[in-house]
Each structure stands twice: as C-alpha cells, then as structure tokens.
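hey so i finally got around to running the thing on that chain from the lab meeting. sorry it took forever, my laptop kept dying and i had to restart like 3 times. anyway pasting the input first so we r on the same page abt which one it is
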Amino acid sequence: RRYGSYNGIKIRRGGSLCPPLREKLQIRRGDPCGRPPIRRKIMKILLVSLGCNKNLVDSEMILGALVKNGHEITLDEKEADYIIVNTCAFINDAKEESINKIIELSEARTKKCKGLIVTGCLAQRYEKEIKKELPEVDCIAGINDYETILKFINKRKKINPEIEFHERVRS
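ok and heres what got predicted. didnt touch it at all, straight out
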C-alpha cells in the first residue's frame, strides 16, 4: 500500500485515509467534517397488527420509520426490546381481540422487554380507559402518531432525540 500526504495527513492512493488514522480520528466514510459516528444501540421491535387493511398500512409505515431510525424488527416476543400493538376498534369483536392481545403480550413480556406500546384506533378512541384498566401499557399513541412511538423508544434508550429522529414520517 502506498500512502501520500495532504496537509500532514496520510492519505491512501484513491483519496481515503489510511486505516490507523481513520480509527484514530473516528472519521465516518462520507463525512467531510470528520465528526465521530453516532453510536446507536439497536433495539429489537415486535409489531402486532390487528384489524383492517388500514392498520396493515399504518403498521408498515411504523416499521419503515423504525428501520429508518436504526431499529431491528423481530417476530419473536422473547427477544423483543419493545412490543407495539396496532389495535382496531371498528367492531366489538375487533375491540375484544385487541384487548385480549394486549393482555396476552403483557403477560408474555420478558425482563428484556422495556416497553409495551399500544397504537391505532382503539388507543386513540379509548386512551383514558386503557390508562386506567391496563397499567402494563407503557405508551399510548393514536392513529398515524409515529413520532410519539419513536420518541418513546429513543427516550428509553437515553439518546438525544434530535440526533436520532432524522425524518418525520408524513401521513
């Protein structure tokens, strides 16, 4: 390997820094200012979508926002750091299914799970009742309230939300 020099900094042919210097300066690839990389703890998220097709679309939007913010999606409730239940309240059977699923997941929570988040139309319509009757729910977010979910997870990670919350998902 051949290294040249530019203003006293060793540079590999092709324009990149030599590896030891890159580590020493903690320069990210593509960052012209040389800021150190943001260290993120990857959280594993389980999302359960109940109800209508609109909830399925909302769930996909939530998952997209979570992945964009560096989180990982899991299908195993035992390895999940956070559980999100996207609820439905269109008919009584859907309400009952949503409440039963919230109770089931809250009982199945492991010590690893830091939060149970309820979102969707049941959460929006019956927020006070959920707070009163289901104290195991840690966060309640209404329909299209992706920002509340992301802020809750980032707050629990103890990371500055301005750094982590790069884009607001548009509804």
